[in-house]
Write a structure and sequence with these properties.
- The protein has a single domain, classed as Up-down Bundle (Amino acid/polyamine transporter I), CATH 1.20.1740.
- 72% of the residues lie in helices and 0% in strands.
- The chain has helices at residues 19-30, 35-45, 50-74, 81-88, 91-123, 129-145, 148-178, 200-210, 216-219, 230-259, 272-317, 323-326, 337-353, 356-385, 391-410, 414-434, 443-446.
- The chain is globular and about 65 Å long.
- The chain starts with 18 loop residues before the first helix and ends with a helix.
């Protein structure tokens, strides 16, 4: 059927997303204001050189974005990381890649609810934090419920508003520096290197945290069955979103560091850029910046919740999760309704009870593991199975992407790796129970 993709039970996802929609979708997931989520914590870890950490993270993510593009060209289906790994390497590894990304996508809506509510509560403390969480979650879920085309149009408007506010923030920082605030200069190497605080291990740890801001580009690939021309547009959109987002993040981290050189004096690490905005442009800019953060929770929440729902839909359709629930599509809106509602509930509960730094690291655990799997999938599928001897695109680039992601993944905190390992154990137990000790394989695993 024109404009639709085949699905279980005759239902289908609708093909409505253009290349521009996909790029905006990725940027909306990452959000132009993503540094607000991690700035206070990450700039302390890097000793005031978060801008350099963002450069390292962007380079690493670009190699991985190329790998996602190649796998999307081979397998333009919902499921993204799970599907690429299952079909490109091995279905069992695909399950664990999907399980890791499930953790990742579950936590994205959760953390944006947390950050948005924190900034909103700082601006209007008379409104309880939990009330802000509920409001943001409600708006996000309602928009996603009515379909990806509505979400795409909403994202276009919200990303535009947010981008204008980010430009105002950067402009205010530039004017403040010119007036002698902070470092008093616009040209400095300090946001990239400070001899007194430099530590290679700290910079790598900071880059691992900074990867959180780039997690959105891979969400583009979960929309392959709703893209008008997935083989042409998915890869280009992933790379474009990664580049555009990286430049935006680096610029913000750069000017913020110069405006507020002593990163140890923030009143709250969770809302550090609120304080930078207030110093650079007064209370008005700080409130406007908070508005941008709240908007970002809508865009990232929309994209994150939608991506998680479609990842689960892909796994449910393939029988790795109960299909009756996870592969269900709303008969009118063609959205995985049950998955969307489940993501909403998890996001609300987690936002009320968990801490931002813990959630951020766990996001990177799932994301980086999935990225490693997709990079290896390129080598396995194109170089080994298809015998395509394109040395750079089918071997060198994906291996570089894998190596950098593996290095960053290994430098996550011991606590994060322990919790992430426990998540894998839960996944293994689920797989063993659901297949009766691997005796009854789901349909997709029979292909392995």
């Amino acid at each position: 059927m024109s404009g639709q993709t085949e699905s279980q039970g005759g239902q289908a996802l609708k093909r409505v997303l253009t290349r521009r929609d996909l790029i905006l979708y990725g940027i909306a997931f990452m959000t132009p204001i993503a540094p607000a989520y991690i700035y206070g914590y990450a700039t302390d870890v890097t000793g005031g050189t978060l801008a350099m950490a963002y450069v390292i993270a962007m380079v690493a993510m670009l190699f991985t974005a190329l790998s996602y593009g190649k796998m999307a060209n081979a397998f333009p289906v919902a499921g993204s990381t799970y599907a690429y790994t299952a079909k490109g390497i091995n279905p069992y590894l695909g399950f664990f890649a999907g399980w890791a990304m499930f953790l990742d996508y579950v936590l994205v809506p959760l953390i944006v609810f947390m950050v948005g509510a924190s900034y909103a509560h700082s601006t209007l403390p008379e409104v309880p934090y939990a009330a802000w969480v509920l409001l943001i979650a409600l708006v996000t879920t309602v928009v996603n419920y009515f379909g990806v085309d509505i979400a795409a149009k909403t994202n276009l408007i919200l990303v535009g508003i947010m981008s204008v506010i980010v430009l105002l923030f950067v402009g205010a920082c530039v004017l403040a520096l010119d007036a002698g605030v902070g470092a008093g200069t616009l040209v400095s190497a300090a946001p990239f290197y400070q001899e007194a605080t430099f530590s290679a291990s700290a910079l790598v740890a900071g880059a691992a945290i900074a990867c959180f801001s780039f997690l959105g580009f891979d969400s583009i690939t979960t929309m392959a069955e709703e893209a008008v021309n997935p083989k042409r547009d998915i890869g280009l959109a992933a790379v474009a979103a990664c580049l555009i987002g990286g430049v935006i993040f680096i610029v913000q981290a750069y000017v913020a560091q110069l405006v507020w050189p002593d990163y140890t004096t923030f009143a709250s690490a969770d809302t550090a850029l609120f304080e930078v905005a207030q110093l650079a442009g007064g209370r008005g800019l700080a409130v406007l910046y908070t508005v941008a953060v709240i908007i970002s929770t809508m865009t990232a929440g929309l994209a994150g919740q939608s991506s998680a729902a479609r990842l689960l839909y892909g796994m449910g359709r393939d029988g790795l999760l109960p299909a009756k629930f996870f592969a269900y599509l709303h008969p009118k809106h063609r959205t995985p309704t049950y998955n969307i509602l489940m993501m909403c509930i998890i996001g609300i509960v987690g936002a009320v009870f968990l801490d931002i730094p813990v959630v951020t690291e766990l996001l990177n655990f799932g994301g980086l593991f999935g990225f490693m799997c997709v990079n290896l999938a390129v080598v396995s599928w194109y170089w080994r199975r298809q015998q395509q001897r394109r040395v750079m695109s089918c071997l060198v680039f994906p291996l570089i992407g894998f190596g950098v992601c593996a290095y960053l993944w290994a430098h996550l905190s011991d606590e994060c790796l322990l919790v992430g390992g426990a998540w894998f154990v839960i996944g293994l137990i689920y797989l063993l129970v659901s297949t009766k000790g691997l005796k009854e394989k789901p349909p997709v695993l029979r292909e392995g």
